[in-house]
């Protein structure tokens, strides 16, 4: 008996043939094996994205999703706008524990250890198969990979892929520099220059200060802004394994004392806690002449500042330095293999040099790979707006953002210590010693020996 040979069918021919049969009979549906093949080839890919519904970012993401689907009609990409990074992380872990997480999420790079400990994500290494895949993985800036890779049983593994990443940069109002007799094209490049210039930029009306020389936010996530100072003081806050912190290192205490001195000794910075959310607004309203904030605010500043402004690297203490920041792509461990492969395909697609460059030009985030700066969209944008490359040029001085196991608790201990120091509740030394003691207690189960 001869074996029956069934010719290979592509999706278009199957659909065309099925439609013809249905049209001729009016009742006959596609055979079961064809329906099954079509169902298996179609993948729905919901993914969590950390932003509230509405606004320009969601429009950009929606456009990427639509463009990807045009090129990959068997993959239905469904962005779910899940709120803040913190909201998105809570929703992702809740869905993971319930057994139905989205296959793909954009979460903070600092969530890496927590996601690993929860067995919520898979490493990317198994998806890296071709020479092109390896070249793609090697294309990302090493500074961003520091919060994306960690050692595992089989060596260093990649758990997240950089997407919307940032560093802290320094913005200054050029008009106010001119009024103070300062060179508007020269931002402070050292801690000493920052104090000297801020003294000239601070304005007072009797007992009231109407314009602060410098503003560094200390609410929300003060550890991140402070990490600029601690890095400049030569201190590294945690080890590469996320199991130990050095909150009470001499450089950390020195950095906190410097931050406190800006308000208490030099009186060029508002005392107490300065709000993250209102700092750009204060800058626009000329309530401060210099501010430190994320490069992710670059488009916001360019749109809303009604005066010429400069963007520069953070000033140096013993060295220059800034932490990186922002979000990575992660793939769920509970997603089906076809969903994981589809997620990886989208991540590869959206992080090409050209698209990463376009994303940077559209949002102000740092392009995550060096060759993006040769892509037409970003090259044109950088030529028109040179401030766009400052964060990139700062990356050789950048360090990994604070991230450990039990990250939210360990970071909270540090934030509490910083705020105690800034408000005068504790001395910088005592505040950091107490923060370190709490971090030691939380991280003890993760420490060997």
Write the layout of secondary structure elements.
Layout: H1 11-25, H2 32-41, E1 43-49, H3 56-71, E2 75-81, H4 85-98, E3 104-108, H5 112-117, H6 131-138, H7 142-145, E4 149-152, E5 155-158, E6 161-173, H8 174-179, H9 191-201, E7 203-205, E8 208-215, H10 222-232, H11 250-264, H12 279-284, E9 288-294, H13 298-304, E10 309-312, E11 322-331, H14 337-350, H15 353-363, H16 376-384, H17 390-394, E12 398-399, H18 407-422, H19 428-443
Parallel strand pairs: 1-2, 1-3, 8-9, 11-12
Antiparallel strand pairs: 3-11, 4-5, 6-9, 6-10, 6-11, 7-8
Helix pairs in contact: 10-11, 15-16, 18-19
Distance between the termini: 70 Å
Radius of gyration: 25 Å
The biggest beta sheet, please?
Answer: 10 strands, mixed
Number of strands: 12
- Kindly state the mean pLDDT as a whole number? 91
Give the number of helices.
19
Structural class, by secondary structure, is alpha/beta
Unreliable segments (pLDDT under 50, ≥5 consecutive)? 1-30, 32-39
Roughly how much helix do the residues carry, as a percent range?
40-55%
Strand content: 15-25%
* Shape verdict: globular
Question: Main traits of this protein?
Answer:
ten-stranded mixed β-sheet, alpha/beta, 449 residues, 19 helices, single chain, 16% strand
Overview of this structure, please?
- The structure is a single chain.
- The chain is of the alpha/beta class.
- Helix content is 45%, strand content 16%.
- It contains 19 helices and twelve strands.
- Strands 1, 2, 3, 6, 7, 8, 9, 10, 11 and 12 form a ten-stranded mixed β-sheet that branches. Strands 4-5 form a two-stranded antiparallel sheet.
- α10 crosses α11 and α18 runs antiparallel to α19 (428-443).
- It is globular, with a radius of gyration of 25 Å.
- It starts with 10 loop residues before the first helix and ends in a 6-residue tail after the last helix.
- The relative contact order is 0.14.
- Mean pLDDT is 91; it is low at 1-30 and 32-39.
